[in-house]
From TrEMBL:
Matches recorded under InterPro entries: 6-hairpin_glycosidase_sf
Protein's UniProt name: Uncharacterized protein
Highest taxon of the lineage: Bacteria
Lineage, opening ranks: Bacteria, Bacillati, Bacillota, Bacilli, Bacillales
Organism whose genome encodes this protein: Cohnella boryungensis
Amino acid sequence: MQKRQIPDTLTLEQRAAHAMNAIVGMSDGDYQDIPFFAANLMSNPANLTHGDWDYGSSHGRMIDAMILARHMSGETFGTEIEEKYRANLLTFFKEDGLSYRQTNPNFNWEPNANFIDQRAVILSLTTWYMSTGDPKVKETADKHVAALKRVAIKEKDVWYYPASEYKEGGWPSSNAILLRLAPDPAAFCGRLVMPLLKYHQLTGNEDALELCEFFSAMIVQRSGVFNADGSFNDSLAYRSGHFHTRLGTLDALARFGAFKGDAALISFVEKSYAWALTQCTTFGWTPGDMKEQAYEHETCSLVDLIATGITLAQSGYTKYWSVVEKFIRNHLAESQLLEMGWVKETDDLSKEVPGYITYRNIAQRTRGAFAGYSAPNDFCCNVNHGRGHTNDLQICCLGSGTRGLYMGWSNTITEKRGTVSVNFLLNRGSVWLDVESYLPHEGKLVLRVHQDIARLQVRIPEWAGFAKVRFTRELDGKIEEGKGNEPSRWVGEHFLLLGRAVAGEVITIEFPLSRRKTIENAIGQIFETEWRGDDVIGISPAGTEHPFYNGRKVFDKAPMREGALRRIENELVW
């Protein structure tokens, strides 16, 4: 691709390349290349630590993230670590088809097949097979799905798991089955529907489809996870309304509803999603739960919020394109660790414990990771409430954050039945056209069309209105002008209908920028945010550890750089 001057604004494929650095850097070369799970960056010196999530969960998320990040960015860095992650993952399977946690000399946990881990495992196997078509991966995944079905407790119209951990000999307690003492259904069943559905779509596996059907029925009809008004059940048995697992379940149900054409299921999701938004900030901070972890935002939760919003927008709730773009531009982008000067390091490695903790090159290794638990205004959450300060990085959030970049990137430009839609106003190359975004500096987009398009539409932010939207279309030296207040220009609430586009055409769209302030409530914490378009450019009170937002710079004219936007013929569809 020939380079040219393009806006130096948010480009998700660049962010994916940064994430690759952290994915590779989390590998522990002194301990079988098992990735570290967490980082404490506020500690002096900073450190990385292992935990019981190191196995199916961490490996599954890292494999999925590496495949997606490479696909987006073309980055070739770290292939040897990726191969080690893949090889490690396959060793965790036992003959029963499930993935088991391993022993660690520094901890007193026992091997078990944890059902949060199983979700990350089938997620990674699905992405792995999607990208390579490797029959050995499919064989492993088929056996895994068969095991997930075999160990499920099956009743007339619902299936479930009666515990969070499965042992080689079976479920730990037959009494739990008799009394239906299922653990949090969203955490251990609901979230599994998302990767299982994609695996069915990819391979036709009928066991995967059955699991989706009966788990979804259990969540919606029997579980009580979601209250009648769409709110989250905050009782202790339901993990105090844990946001990551609830939002992940809504993502799964939305996808399944879209797959089935089930309007009632989509409506069920939308009601709960709309309630969840009332608990989050407009820029994408989410609570951890509704009790002890309320102040601890996980990047995982934000990515679930992004994915669910995209499926709802695709299903007709077009207002959520705007909601999701704010999440991507703000808390997802801010949550990625790129500036490392504040991380305190040491040359004294005498306190290192293989398989437990390292102090080695922490800043270099974690650059590109995503926040584990962040505050609305700070990378580090150090409030007086809840559990106080915990992990600054978690590898699950690194995997989820990278997947969030992919969801934004892959849905910026979409095509359906001849209509090409520009949904997010972000830099993005594609086989149909390139989008060059001047936001938030200028209210301007440049579209460079590569092939004839039967019908082209571009979402315009709601704050831009329609009367002052202007566009020009240039082809072979001829220029046509158009306005947003012309009849029949708008579809789907906020999409500017441009109609037929021709290869070689350059379309420039301009609209006024919004400058405004909002008051945001994050579980009783009040913040004033300053917006320029869809970007937060200031927040008060400011953070104290690694402040968010107040370091953002905006100009009257967008800065430019030499570059090219990546175009891929066969994108991985997630």
